[in-house]
Amino acid sequence: MFKKLMIGMLVIGLITTSCSDDDDNTPVVNAGTISGGPFEFDVDGEPDFATGITLDASNAFGENSIWVITDDMGNILGTPPTLEAVGMVDFDGAGAGTCFIWYARYENDSNLAMATTVAGITGTFDLSNSIEVVRNQVVNAGSISGGPFEFDVDGEPDFATGITLDASNAFGENSIWVITDDMGNILGTPPTLDAVGMVDFDGAGAGTCFIWYARYENDSNLAMATTVAGITGTFDLSNSIEVVRNQVVNAGSISGGPFEFDVDGEPDFATGITLDATNAFGENSIWVITDDMGNILGTPPTLDAVGMVNFDGAGAGTCFIWYARYENDSNLAMATTVAGITGTFDLSNSIEVVRNQVVNAGSISGGPFSFTVDGTADFVSGITLDATNAFGTNSTWVITDDMGNILGVPDTLADVEGVNFDGAGVGTCFIWYARYENNSNIKMATTVAGITGMFDLSNSIEVARN
């Protein structure tokens, strides 16, 4: 209305002038009419040009011509000299608002080419009709690049690094970064790219999330929204970068040992084992004891249960203690070999337990005995064997003199009690019980010192022959 009123006043003034007594000497100006538009652009960093404008100058008069671009308050923003020059004006650079394009004719007495407002134009001039150009303020988040990322959820920090932002066409009063899950829930809104680089995605658990950059105006609730669907107001999200977080299992690590025991009938326990579960992950846990061939000998449920396993009872050999984490799709608790474990699982490092095969003759009691060498047979009796802790594949009894010479190797206690010590003459001899392995020559040796291989002699019982 302001412009139309102004133009009307100008026209009235011109008419008044042309109707004076000096009609033949007073110049008359007429800007003619222009057509095209109206135009509506988004202020988004992309150039916007008003094209297709035409000028009807059939009734246009005036010594000079110029184009005038004003804002909606009548301020003159520019005066392009030609229509081609108007077509080269980038309206995106003017920011949000409304402006008008006019064509003007004027005489030399006018200051139109120098004026800064329409109200400030003096002299003889005329403005055509105007074409409106609306410049809408929009937001543009630009674009981001980097990734995609794929991490294992294993207790080790995982960071999305190397992301870059192309903000050459980014517009908006405020900016923020947005991290969402694959359902559009907003998990976090880091304020800067540096803050994005400090997000530990391992802590979010298994799943997929997305990183976005956002620009928004003050009418938006973006900084407070909990879902993308719930964002209101003026905002724009960039393209997204995918971050895949794979669920894995990690058994952590164990320490203690290694252990070495003698298989001798005495209980042997692996104590002092510790578990570092700082980075241990998995729905279920169990302990696994295997032999050196990967056969599973036992699966104690807890570390306390491991400490109660008697390794002496497993016989000679080598076994290993492991800690395991596994998911419900694994058969670990039922498997009989490590090679046969299926599903999602992880075994920790192992602790070796060596079980040495030894022989133990146990102990004997009875006597001592004292006989007179008088031609009357003398037999030992009442000897007993405590074989509770006796180990060894083979057994025998051994009778020696006091110099360690082997006088006999009776097979059984009954055979020992059948020996006539009177026939050995005067002297002292000893009765022993022995356990031995197949690599021993005890049955063939003539002296104790000459026994080889794996064997063990019990305590001895003295037999004095007076």
Poorly predicted spans: 1-24
Q: What is the straight-line distance between the termini?
A: 150 Å
Main sheet properties: 6 strands, mixed
Task: Say what oligomer this is.
Answer: single chain
- Class from helix and strand fractions: mainly beta
Write down how many β-strands occur, each being a DSSP E stretch of 2 or more residues: 32
Report the radius of gyration as a whole number of Å: 53 Å
Fraction of residues in helix: under 10%
Percent in strands: 35-45%
Secondary structure tally, helices: 5
Overall, the morphology is rod-shaped
The whole-number mean of residue pLDDT values reads 90
What does this structure look like?
With about 475 residues, the chain is mainly β. Helices cover about 5% and strands about 35% of the residues. It is built from five helices and 32 strands. It has helices at about 1-20, 85, 195, 305, 415, and strands spanning about 35, 40-45, 55, 65-70, 75-80, 95-105, 125, 130-135, 145, 150-155, 165, 175-180, 185-190, 205-215, 235, 240-245, 255, 260-265, 275, 285-290, 295-300, 315-325, 345, 350-355, 365, 370, 385, 395-400, 405-410, 425-435, 455, 460-465. The strands form eight sheets. Strands 2, 4, 5, 6, 7 and 8 form a six-stranded mixed beta sheet that branches. Mean pLDDT is about 90; it is low at about 1-25.
